[in-house]
Amino acid sequence: xxxxxxxxxxxxxxxxxxxxxxxxxxxxxxxxxxxxxxxxxxxxxxxxxxxxxxxxxxxxxxxxxxxxxxxxxxxxxxxxxxxxxxxxxxxxxxxxxxxxxxxxxxxxxxxxxxxxxxxxxxxxxxxxxxxxxxxxxxxxxxxxxxxxxxxxxxxxxxxxxxxxxxxxxxxxxxxxxxxxxxxxxxxxxx
Amino acid sequence: xxxxxxxxxxxxxxxxxxxxxxxxxxxxxxxxxxxxxxxxxxxxxxxxxxxxxxxxxxxxxxxxxxxxxxxxxxxxxxxxxxxxxxxxxxxxxxxxxxxxxxxxxxxxxxxxxxxxxxxxxxxxxxxxxxxxxxxxxxxxxxxxxxxxxxxxxxxxxxxxxxxxxxxxxxxxxxxxxxxxxxxxxxxxxxxxxxxxxxxxxxxxxxxxxxxxxxxxxxxxxxxxxxxxxxxxxxxxxxxxxxxxxxxxxxxxxxxxxxxxxxxxxxxxxxxxxxxxxxxx
Lengths: 190, 280
Prior knowledge:
The complex is a heterodimer of chains A (about 190) and B (about 280).
Chain A (H helix, E strand, L loop, with lengths): L2 H23 L12 H13 L1 H17 L8 H19 L7 H23 L10 H29 L8 E4 L5 E4 L5
Antiparallel strand pairs in A: 1-2
Helix pairs in contact in A: 1-3, 2-3, 2-4, 2-5, 2-6, 3-4, 4-5, 5-6
Chain B lengths: L1 H30 L4 H35 L1 H20 L4 H12 L12 E8 L8 E4 L12 E3 L4 E8 L4 E5 L6 E5 L5 E5 L7 E6 L14 E4 L12 E9 L8 E6 L8 E5 L5
Antiparallel strand pairs in B: 1-2, 1-12, 2-5, 3-4, 3-12, 4-5, 6-7, 6-9, 7-8, 8-11, 9-10, 10-11
């Protein structure tokens, strides 16, 4: 099997493990009543590691798997949201963001906060008004605490995703020159 | 040129995935809970349920530790409150026998007084729900045990929720605190209302139906409220729902503001009873 196929299988396995942990342990990790979201974090890591296309693909499947375990929102809502977030993070990673040790936690924090808001906005546009029934205070709390969780879990999850995605590193990688400017370089597929 | 081709390919992939997601949303919204998308969800739950059971069993000690660590302060307070309560009971000579009797009633789901002669299915919770916008849990029984959509679900303290979706081996229960959930409740002999969920950490809000009532309901804090079980309701009567958390009637208002605290601790659900009951 080619390294790309093996990497894709590993990413698929990672998504399965992530949803199992999310559904069995997520409730026990509630801080101020808010649970972390591992699936959107995996999508963000995919974007940061493999670029916009990887982020879109992994985000779509992560969101679709999440949708399978939700009953009050339509199938496809999380797929749409996580796909856009993964692609957005990947695009910013390629074009704008410099290398930094803080990149993963900051990207996870901002990406997750954006994902929560985007999910609620898209859901409301698609007729899911009940997402706002819990009130603005709850929404703000979810955004802040979920983003905090994402920042805390970003480094271990990105390390795990990087291991799973080995063999797929052929997308754009962002490097930085000594002066801090950003350039894009192409890395050949293994 | 290579860079341009990769950028256009990325845009193409993103457009295809967005369209696919929107198509799924449209199909699911139009199917209204039935159809191919609900079948897909049911099959996925059936496939994942053995994995969830195994993962739940393996990770439960870790989960209990994390829950204790994250809720350490409230656990200490609750522990002290319970210690004080036990000491008070002992001082009044309500001894271990009464405590054992209460524990036996809590543990023995089959002896719930409010269930009466309704058949029940006891199930274990395998997914406590980790969505922040949906309060639901998944149990390890489904249509293979006679469970169907809209059946009420109870625990030792009272009403937990209702079956929202079901597969062969699992069922998803929407909890009473979900914003999409509501239940008819009896407030006093002449008044009924509707209790609605506002979120996992929020009390239930009660809207009073005062049509034809001779007087406004007067409730006291701590008073228990049960299901009304009126015609067309989805719940049988007299199932405990919650206790009055707040009651206020401002001058000139037609209805009082009432909130309820659920009687069941929805953060610690392990075993539930599904009532094999449907409205007449």
